[in-house]
Write a sequence for this structure.
């Protein structure tokens, strides 16, 4: 059974830092792209960052670029999100998600974010 | 950057009725990179449809997706009580992902 379990959220001060973790099991972690997606209270979903299976390629939403860092430790089956220079607008539930993609040699096939964690809440307030 | 606009914002229907949800992209996108998710209150999103029209594992066949170019549709043929939720479309690009703002399906 595929499982993703986020942790690390809490009440943080503006300008502060926190590292979120996402421990996974039930699939071959190093072979999958992983993303962080957040949801502000009462709002929709916002993609935050993605990382390839090997960890060497990362992408970020403009809203977090330069402040957040996505990383992974494939030996520990764990995904991370280091969040620095926190702002009130970073307040949200943060989900990690497994993405399935396949490269045929000429085309990337995308099978969606097919597994999600239950989320961890980050509140940024003084 | 691609913007996804979903309509309507809220859809009020009854069990047994047919639901049609729209997702419009700001520019033409590959149907292979369009997905739909369902989210119930207090729960994580769940993948329903990928590649615009392929159902994810375990998704009932009353859910179907269609569309191409800039216009995509999620159809629920006969609403069950458990289908009342918020639905999001999502576009994949190798360097980013984008979600629509969501459609709330209510009784």
């Amino acid at each position: 059974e595929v499982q993703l379990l986020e942790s690390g959220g809490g009440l943080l001060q503006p300008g502060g830092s926190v590292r979120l973790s996402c421990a996974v099991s039930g699939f071959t972690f190093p072979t999958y792209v992983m993303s962080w997606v957040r949801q502000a209270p009462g709002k929709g979903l916002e993609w935050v960052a993605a990382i390839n299976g090997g960890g060497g390629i990362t992408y970020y939403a403009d809203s977090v670029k330069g402040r957040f860092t996505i990383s992974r430790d494939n030996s520990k089956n764990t995904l991370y999100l280091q969040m620095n220079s926190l702002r009130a607008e970073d307040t949200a539930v943060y989900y990690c998600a497994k993405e399935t993609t396949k490269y045929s040699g000429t085309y990337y096939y995308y099978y969606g974010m097919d597994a999600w964690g239950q989320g961890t809440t980050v509140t940024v307030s003084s | 950057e691609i913007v996804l606009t979903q309509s309507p914002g809220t859809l009020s229907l009854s069990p047994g009725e047919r639901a049609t949800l729209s997702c419009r992209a700001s520019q033409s996108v590959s149907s292979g990179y369009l997905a739909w998710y369902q989210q119930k209150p207090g729960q994580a999103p769940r993948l329903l449809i990928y590649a615009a029209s392929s159902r994810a594992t375990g998704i009932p066949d009353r859910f179907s997706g269609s569309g191409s170019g800039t216009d995509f549709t999620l159809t629920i043929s006969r609403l069950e009580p458990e289908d009342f939720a918020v639905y999001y479309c999502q576009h994949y690009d190798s360097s980013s992902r984008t979600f629509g703002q969501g459609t709330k399906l209510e009784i």
Chain A touches chain B through 24 residues (CB under 8 Å). The longest strand of chain A covers residues 92-103.
